[in-house]
Design goal:
500 residues; alpha/beta; Alkaline Phosphatase, subunit A; 2 domains; nine-stranded mixed beta sheet; four-stranded antiparallel beta sheet; 19 strands; Alkaline_phosphatase_core_sf; TAT_signal; DUF1501
């Protein structure tokens, strides 16, 4: 028998029959009261999101996590293509026309900071390329991007974007995951977690990396964070297909099929032993998808059926080798959308160990040369891909997003040839399903230095993208470490003014 002297005061009270019965009686009464309150609808509601709304967590079959699921509400966009330009494209040299820069060229008016991200500042600099009115809307776009400029009547520009950081890794993280820190799910992962995909032979989310490699934040840009691993982006491009697609030469088709059949039977028996193990089911589903990709991915990557006119329009030949490789990536992106992949993220630029405008848009020096080099790679293939998708009717159900992590300053750095990072104003554009055409939302100030009219945060931007996909950014959550996590954290408002 336990010695009462070795028990705490609370423990000794439990040995007292009267105290034990009294505690049990009160506990039973509490349970009864809770039941009565529940039946009368007087209990507090379930835990809500930061906005007070009830979370919506998708019902996912662990045996097939990629099955298509219904959106929160009817929306025009069923798929999304994100064109991401790492390095920070200069808005004042592309889409955000600021005549004041020409007027004050070479001057240093009051209000310009003495030091920015990379050091001392120089003087105001006019755009390095001339701006001209384009299309019926007369939208002013620079000569740096002549092919995209031809389509401005179909684009919806957001000119008052601003972000929380001026560093590239954190900026990429923030735009693509909603947080400056690593370890959070990417936009594509949230969408596929919520909606699954229509094509069960291909990944639900594909990241097409630049021919030069990964962006500065690497796989975090398309990672799943704390969401189930099934929803991470599968990364490959036209030059580098996924590994192990082809059957080894020493293995016959019959032996290969027999091996697959055996694995399926073994996996099914193993799953029967652990019917509630969602992680195990998800891993099995991932391996089964990998098996299907051995035939579906080569078919998607086979450009031999593309016409000579299409290859010419995309710029596969006739330009730099990098433009040709990026053009093939654009063709791959269109083909994946055409085959029903839910989310495609297409990168134009890489930066695993720097860049300085050579491998991406980060033009701290000689912006006239480095931005021109990146534009030669990006402009024609991107414009051709968008036009091709429109001609094929794909934009009726696909949202296209062109984005960069922040902008660049209206004044030069002290070296006199480059522009520093600008987190306070930058431009992105949308086109396709659900957005207005030939429309501009928000304005930066007269210099393009800070967002001035309808300032738009990255939270607002991502909230709007989810809304266009039929998802409520305040209710799409995943319970993690005691918090109802979401892409927009506890912030963000949908920009209804940009929606058709």
């Amino acid at each position: 028998m336990t010695n009462p002297e070795n028990l705490s005061v609370q423990g000794r009270r439990l040995l007292d029959r009267r105290s034990f019965l009294g505690t049990a009686g009160l506990s039973t009464a509490g349970l009864g009261l809770a039941s009565l309150l529940q039946s009368d609808g007087l209990l507090a509601s379930d835990v809500g999101t930061a906005g007070g709304k009830t979370p919506i967590r998708p019902s996912i079959d662990p045996n097939n996590p990629y099955l298509p699921r219904k959106a929160h509400f009817e929306a025009p966009a069923k798929q999304v293509l994100v064109i991401f330009c790492p390095g920070a494209v200069s808005h004042v040299d592309t889409f955000d026309y600021k005549p004041a820069l020409t007027k004050l060229h070479g001057q240093k008016p009051p209000g310009i900071p003495a030091v920015t991200f990379e050091g001392p500042t120089g003087n105001i600099a006019k755009p390095f390329w001339d701006f001209k009115p384009r299309g019926e809307s007369g939208k002013m776009v620079s000569d740096l991007l002549p092919h995209l400029a031809e389509q401005v009547d179909d684009f919806c520009f957001l000119h008052s974007l601003n972000t929380d950081t001026s560093a590239h890794p954190q900026g990429e993280n923030f735009l693509n995951t909603g947080f400056t820190m690593e370890g959070f799910p990417s936009f594509g992962s949230w969408v596929t977690y919520a909606l699954g995909t229509e094509n069960q032979e291909l990944p639900s989310f594909v990241a097409i990396n630049d021919p030069r490699g990964l962006a500065r934040s690497g796989k975090n840009n398309f990672g799943n964070g704390f969401l189930p691993a099934a929803f991470q982006g599968t990364d490959f491009n036209a030059k580098n297909p996924p590994n192990n697609l082809h059957r080894p030469s020493g293995l016959s088709p019959a032996a290969d099929h027999a091996t697959v059949d055996l694995l399926q039977r073994l996996n099914a028996k193993h799953l029967e032993l652990y019917p509630g193990d969602a992680n195990l089911a998800g891993r099995i589903a991932s391996y089964e998808l990998a098996g299907k990709m051995q035939t579906s991915v080569p078919d998607a990557m086979d450009l031999s059926g593309e016409t000579a006119a299409t290859l010419k329009a995309y710029g596969v030949e006739g330009g730099s080798a990098l433009r040709g490789e990026y053009a093939k990536n654009c063709l791959l992106a269109r083909r994946l959308i055409e085959k029903g992949v839910r989310v495609v993220q297409l990168f134009n630029g890489s930066d695993p160990a720097g860049g300085n405008g050579i491998t991406n848009w980060d033009s701290h020096s000689n912006i006239a040369k480095t931005h021109a080099m990146q534009a030669e790679i990006m402009d024609q293939p991107t414009a051709a891909m968008i036009a091709d998708m429109r001609q094929r009717g794909l934009l009726e159900n696909t949202l296209v997003v062109w984005a960069t992590e922040f902008g660049r300053m209206p004044f030069l750095q002290s070296n006199g040839t480059g522009r520093d990072h600008n987190p306070d104003a930058f431009t992105c554009f949308l086109t396709g399903a659900g957005v207005k055409k030939g429309f501009s939302y928000g304005e930066s100030d007269e210099f393009g230095f800070k967002a001035a009219v309808n300032p738009t945060s990255v939270y607002d931007f991502n909230a709007s993208l989810l809304h266009l996909m039929g998802l409520d950014h305040e209710r799409l959550t995943f319970y993690h470490n005691g918090l109802e996590r979401r892409l927009t954290n506890v912030h963000g408002s949908v920009i209804h003014d940009v929606m058709a």
